[in-house]
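Q: Hi! First time asking for a complex rather than a single chain. Here are the components, and I think there are two in total. Is that enough to go on?
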Amino acid sequence: DAGVIQSPRHEVTEMGQEVTLRCKPISGHNSLFWYRQTMMRGLELLIYFNNNVPIDDSGMPEDRFSAKMPNASFSTLKIQPSEPRDSAVYFCASSLGQGGYNEQFFGPGTRLTVL
Amino acid sequence: DQQVKQNSPSLSVQEGRISILNCDYTNSMFDYFLWYKKYPAEGPTFLISISSIKDKNEDGRFTVFLNKSAKHLSLHIVPSQPGDSAVYFCAASDPWAGNTPLVFGKGTRLSVIA
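A: Yes, that's all I need. Here is the structure of the assembled complex.
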């Protein structure tokens, strides 16, 4: 039973380049969450979707960040243009339900380094 | 404003002793609390949870205590093992608030020394 799948696992890019992170949630889960983990801020929620619809994107730091969920089995987080301060580990999580009592299952993360 | 606070960034404990990780929250509407454990190069995984109708929940070596009046919860690990070395995240939710996901603390790095 596959868990949440994220790709790539590691991404090194130069400042100004476009970065696209990908996520495949657990089949049957209807909520998907994008998080960013840094030493300073811990685990920050960037955006989440319910039934493929973005519900709250108030955690997205700037207009350079965008996320899409074209169908129930795929989501992308795009940074354009990327900056060194975007370097972090980005996690995708999914759950059956939006929150409350619903456990979130996390992917292994994408470690992004922007030079 | 941080609604879930883990004030100790790190903790070191001897193998076999008790590890106590603390978490404070500010939102009195939070009704459900979870602990997640994270190993390096992996995503966080669910460890244990507690609902506000209880003040204690136990699962093997792991026990979570909730003090609603103090808005405080703690995770006890007894006895601590080297494999418990990880980052532990406290999370909270208001299940009745509709479109509101989990709110996480910044995490506490636990090191269990053999």
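A: The two ends of chain A are 36 Å apart (CA to CA). Let me know if you'd like any chain examined more closely.
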